[in-house]
Each structure stands twice: as structure tokens, then as C-alpha cells.
Amino acid sequence: MSLMPTVRIVGDGNFIDPWCDRWIPELGVATPKPNTSPDSLLKVSDFIEPATRTWDRVKLNQHFDQSSIERIVKIPLSVSPSSDRRAWDLTRDGKFTTKSAYHGLRGIRDDPTSKVWKKIWRTKIPYRVQVFIWRCAKNALPTRDNLSLRVQLPSILCPFCQTSPETIMHVLITCPISSRIWFQSRLNMRTVAFLGKPIMDWFRFCLGEAPFLYSQEKDESFPLVACLMWSIWLSRNNMIHNAKTDSPFLIIN
Ligand SMILES: [Zn+2]
């Protein structure tokens, strides 16, 4: 992650994750306020006052540590909000493209021709979900396991089952709660084979890439796989931060 270039905000920050993207000059990712747990649903846009186009200091104070805040408030914001997707000033003409986000945010070390990436970008799903899936594949979601690499956490165990570290694979696929959802869904998937495996294995399987078998059915069901992963993530965050529990039935739908 340290090889990622610093990312400047020139747009509305809708697609920048404060805890996983490098968006603060010198620091990169933000550090949560001591003794709080980072809210994974927050985007950088949540800290910008839409009316005045300035940093919302009250909100910054609720979530970030002092040294992060000092640097965040120095980041210039454009007077008028730029188009939604123009959150990173990475291409020469200043236009945001998914490709520039892909190269800029995650580094260019990955083979851009990789079939998995291509398939993810080609999938017809809402843009927000696509960004989310791409973050999953890049292991760039603020799970406890990832956050613990940067901040001190009381526990990295999954807050729901308390049996395994909260990795992306665990929270979205193999946690008993999620596992039940996959099985009960129209996909009728058993996820036990993915216990302890990296999340890329899951994507290779769902997209029919080697060493897994390809079938047209897999291509057709991937949008549903993606949306279910997204719903599980939203519901997990709702449970943690709003103490709201969605029934598996609601998540599947
Ligand atoms: Zn769990």
C-alpha cells in the first residue's frame, strides 16, 4: 500500500474511502480519532459542507485524530462541486476515468490486462457497487484486519461470530452469518471451501478464471454476486454503527 501515489481531491470525494485510500498529503490514509472505531460507510464527501464547499471541522473532529485533521483542512476544495466521478486529478486532461482511478489509487504494479479486473469493470452493475467490488478485490476495505495494520484495535476478531479475524473474505463470504445468506440466496452457494482463503480466490471462482472452471452461468450470475456482497457489507456496517439488524431475507432481496 505504501507504493500508492498520493491522491488529491479535486471533486466531491464521493468515492474516496478515508481509511483505505491515500488522499491526505504526507499521511496518505486517515487515522481515526483515538478510542473510536472507524465508520466504514464514511466517504471523504461526508466531511465537506455542501453549501460552503469547506471542510466540516465538527465532523472531522468526531472521526479523525488531530494530525490527520491538521492536514485535511489544508487540502483545497474547488468552489463548485465537480462532477461525481471526477474525484481524482490523475489523467492529463483532468478527467476522471475508471482506468485512471484503477492505476492511480492502487498503483500500476498489477497487470492491467488481468482477466479478473477486466471482467469486474465490464460487469453491468451500479458504479458504486463496481467501485466496492474493485476495493474488495484489492483488499482495500476498512475491515478490522486491514485497519489493525495501521491503528491499535482492541480486537481484530469478527464482531459477530468472534471466531475469526475480520478479513474481507470472512466478513463477506465465510462468516456464519454471511455463509447462511449465500446458501439461502438464489445462488444457493456453499462458501465453506473459502475458509481462510484470499478474496481473489473467490473472485476467480465466481468469474470462472483459472484454476476454476468457466461457465456462462457464472458470467450471468456475477452481477448478483456483486450486489449480494455489497448488501452484506452495508448491513454489516449498519449493525455496527447504527445497531440495526437486517434479516437475511432483507439482505438477499
Ligand atoms: Zn464472523
UniProtKB/TrEMBL annotation:
<dbReference type="GO" id="GO:0003964">
    <property type="term" value="F:RNA-directed DNA polymerase activity"/>
</dbReference>
<protein>
    <submittedName>
        <fullName>Reverse transcriptase zinc-binding domain</fullName>
    </submittedName>
</protein>
<keyword id="KW-0695">RNA-directed DNA polymerase</keyword>
<feature type="domain" description="Reverse transcriptase zinc-binding">
    <location>
        <begin position="96"/>
        <end position="182"/>
    </location>
</feature>
<keyword id="KW-0808">Transferase</keyword>
<keyword id="KW-0548">Nucleotidyltransferase</keyword>
<dbReference type="Pfam" id="PF13966">
    <property type="entry name" value="zf-RVT"/>
</dbReference>
<dbReference type="InterPro" id="IPR026960">
    <property type="entry name" value="RVT-Znf"/>
</dbReference>
